């Protein structure tokens, strides 16, 4: 009994002491005070221990130089304490004598993080050692934790991680002090976090070889030192080095591995580089034979052994498995999956045996990664047996959509899982190597999904050659550092706004954020690099586009205007940026926005050139010239980037035509030449060819029907054919027809050869139709009975000729629509932005949530949580799935196609799909499946368009009010837009604008 009593006493005493420790630590963390770094002519010293890791000294010197760049005074790095009023003490627990003494004396409590991964404490301690009154103490749980803690001070004094890589020059100050809150950092959300320097041929390698590191003539130790500094500033710890044949292998420069170790950077390699070996350039066919494991395994193992021996003492992640040379499938004698799986298992077994022998460690203790990329994913799905301690590094499909993630069983594997993600890609169906055109909110969504499915061990971003991917690199690594800060999609805009404040100040941050979000929205609809259009079957001819120029307001012109708006805003912002930040703004905002805008306008104007040339318009020549101007602007800005920026610091870093693909060239343009006398031409919205003015006073040329309930407006292009000057006048035949302009002069000499006139209706003046409860029947608006349709016209008069354009308005007085709120049919379709639901109904375990900043409308809606159980039983779907409801009204009835546009994601794993269910009114739900297979043509079209569209047939049983319902089947399906087509939808790239009642 006494033993039990004493045990209970010790138990409660232990609990008391633990609580007391938490209270003490909390008290320490709550303490906030100011600490001077530079005051007057006095500058702080940084006290480190010589026996500590080299990265501690490196980080201390980085911080000291940051202070120098701000104040002109540089802290001294010292290794022995001396009398001082205050000092910074930085060190790693167990590697710094003073830190260990502070712990032993009870002045520094490290119990909460002592043996954890990459954590640090920052706190102020009075009288830490004899002769020092006060110290700002940084204690790291390991060497990287200490380095991150030191560089946190750089953040606190306002130094950007892009101080060198994007020339974000710090603000000058005479004195420097920081507010210190005693804190302990959390463990990083992701253990290994870093970047892959890939597709470096056109920027990073040329810049290093020809400019920054000519003594090496390559990306060598000097360049890698600057990259590693950037990674430390961004709290990253891993790199997959550059591996194209333009660059010598990382380990061919012996100093590279020492530099990496000094900066505490972990070396890994890509899916095509097993065992830290660069097959592209290390495999010599003339001396080593074929790169085939089935016929030449001993030679291949020799290479693996050499690399394992060379790297055994350094931090590394060994990629296991094998692919062919340069991103190709592994060659196997027998062309069947079982044979390839068996051979791959043999490769992995042999690799682990080599690691055990050369490192003298159990393979379970050595970081290893298996990357199921492209065909290797098929091998894994076909039953490949992978040791449980190896980390599964899941990949996106090269266009930003994760192919697969860990299922519940895989989530319990000791080796865990990771992510390999692209913001740069070379391959089919099309490269995107120039600009950063991956939507950051999409990246957040896919990374947060991966994190939720327990991919938390390795995150690698393929960032091309770093520039101009700066923002997305930082976002990716900030998420990997602390995913708790990114619970909602709105966190991305908050993050970008905070980033813009840090880089450019509060005054312009909001406008910069809006410009970048709009640029990302436009790039989501079509990446700049895809604007020459697709090579997917059926092949689109070069110079043609799926964007319509005569339906739904002219998609080409609208995109030109959208880009022109952000061009003008960016140029205005640049003028207002302080001089010492202009170069940073140029790199981080100006060049990416102007480059994307002008590449778009180059092609968009060429599309207009060809379209108008077919109609004989003189404006075709102007559009051709504008296309060439856009091309010239890209050349000019790229030249400035390379030769003028920072006095040539970045010469050779930027190439406007990676791989010299057609999209980067100047498009061919058509020229309209004629000696004929000028005459008036007209082209109407809704018609591909110009008006035939030989048919006088005819209603054959009519605008699309104006709908009272959507307040439609349409355009008429007034243009000159031939040469010379002509006057034109437009006379509406009814006072309710309103024109943006009613007269003008066109002149081929002045260049004013075309004018777009907008036709709108003053609905207060239009005669009302019959007072009805519902609308007439019939699918064609042109066949609407006269009682519901009012006809008139516009006469265009020039040089004694009159061309009449018919105007028809649909203006019934429908009582049911008097106070109606919802969507209405217009021209045979109903268009809906998915976020604008009428109602949504949640269930116990799932609900619909809005993601802002992605999709064609900049908002998508999805059913969450992602762990919700899929439901495919129709009755259970109706009873137990969350549902969106959209009220809409039709003037027609019959069979309809409900077209759903969603974000083209993939199923996370077997058991979860990419499905939802739809129905109109009380019909049974119809399941719609968006999953694509492999690298099919459908998948190619989807990723080029960042959208997948599938349709379900439904019956609209009467003209009148209806409700569209969309249920969750699988969680995570992101719905962008909906189009209910009753037979009127014409060809267009995007769905028409919402047909909401106005």
Enumerate the strands of the largest sheet in spatial order, edge to edge or round the barrel.
Answer: 12-11-10-17-16-15-14-13
User: Measured on Cα atoms, how large is the radius of gyration?
Assistant: 33 Å
What's the number of extended β-strand segments? 40
How is the main sheet built? 8 strands, parallel
The portion of residues forming beta strands comes to 15-25%
Number of helices: 21
- Overall pLDDT metric: 92
Question: Which structural class matches the secondary elements?
Answer: alpha/beta
Tell the overall outline: globular
The end-to-end span amounts to 83 Å
The low-confidence parts are 1-29, 695-699, 776-787
| Residue share in helix | 25-40%
What does this structure look like?
This protein is α/β, with parallel strands linked by helices and 998 residues long. The protein is built from 21 helices and 40 strands. The strands form eight sheets. The chain has an eight-stranded parallel beta sheet with strand order 12-11-10-17-16-15-14-13, covered by helices on one side. A six-stranded mixed beta sheet has the order 4-3-5-7-6-9, with helices on both faces. The longest helix is centred in the middle third of the chain and has 36 residues, at 579-614. It is globular, with a radius of gyration of 33 Å. The N and C termini lie far apart (83 Å).
Task: Tag the structure with descriptive keywords.
998 residues; alpha/beta; eight-stranded parallel sheet; six-stranded mixed sheet; 21 helices
